[in-house]
Amino acid sequence: MSDALVRQGHGSIPHRLTTTTFTLDGYRVVETLGVVRGITVRSRSVVGLVGAQVQIFFGGNITIFTRLCERAREEAFQIMMVHAEEVGANAVIGIRYDANEVMTGVTEVLCYGTAVVVEAA
Questions:
Q1: Cα–Cα distance for residue pair 114/17, rounded to 1 Å
Q2: For the chain, which has fewer Cβ within 10 Å, the N-terminal or C-terminal residue?
Q3: For the whole model, what pTM was predicted?
Q4: What is the mean pLDDT of residues 75-81?
Q5: Mind spelling out the 3-state secondary structure of 15-37?
Q6: Are 62 and 49 in contact (CB under 8 A)?
Q7: In which element (H, E) is residue 65 found?
Q8: Region of residue 88 (left: phi > 0; alpha: psi -120 to 50; beta: else)
Q9: Rg of the chain in Å (alpha carbons)
Q10: How confident is the model over 8-20, as pLDDT tens digits?
Q11: Which sequence spans correspond to the domains of the chain?
Q12: CA proximity to 63, closest of 51, 75, 77, 50
């Protein structure tokens, strides 16, 4: 799968057909295609870590880490959506995120859900 496709957010599944629930109002599931996932592993650069240390010193929201986390979650979500399209889904239900530290300063972010085919109810 192309990183460029993920970064550009290419995809034909509308955002409104993704949910953390197991139903979509106004639609019925006609086929379940299985679990789909997107995974990314990220670390912060040394420069970013120094900037974060400064923010930690003054307290409050650590915006450098907030942006890193948001980018990682968005990338994992987009990879999952591409995977869903590859298996023929037009919606993804039951979406969840998980994150684990792989090693000091390196975090894995996983986004997963159930790929389904839905039709208007």
A1: 12
A2: C
A3: 0.78
A4: 97
A5: HHHECCCCCCCCEEEEEEEEEEE
A6: no
A7: helix 63-86
A8: left
A9: 17
A10: 445 689 999 999 9
A11: 3-120
A12: 51
Residue range 3-120 in CATH 3.30.70.1120: no
Continuous segment of H or E residues that includes residue 6:
helix 3-8
Q: In angstroms, rounded to a whole number, what is the distance separating the alpha carbons of residues 68 and 73? A: 9
Q: What is the DSSP letter of 1?
A: -
Two structure tokens written together for 29: 């599931």
Which has the closest alpha carbon to 37: 117, 88, 109?
A: 109
Tell me how crowded residue 93 is: count the other CB atoms within 10 A of its CB.
Answer: 21
Give the span between the Cα atoms of 80 and 6, in whole angstroms: 10
**What per-residue confidence (pLDDT) applies to 6?**
40
Nearest to 84 by CA among 106, 113, 105: 113
DSSP letter assigned to residue 87: T
Stretch 53-76: mean pLDDT: 74
Find where tokens 């995809």 sit.
Answer: 11
Question: Which tokens is 96 given?
Answer: 């969840």
Which helix H or strand E contains 82, and what residues bound it? helix 63-86
Q: Which residue has the higher pLDDT, 72 or 45?
A: 72
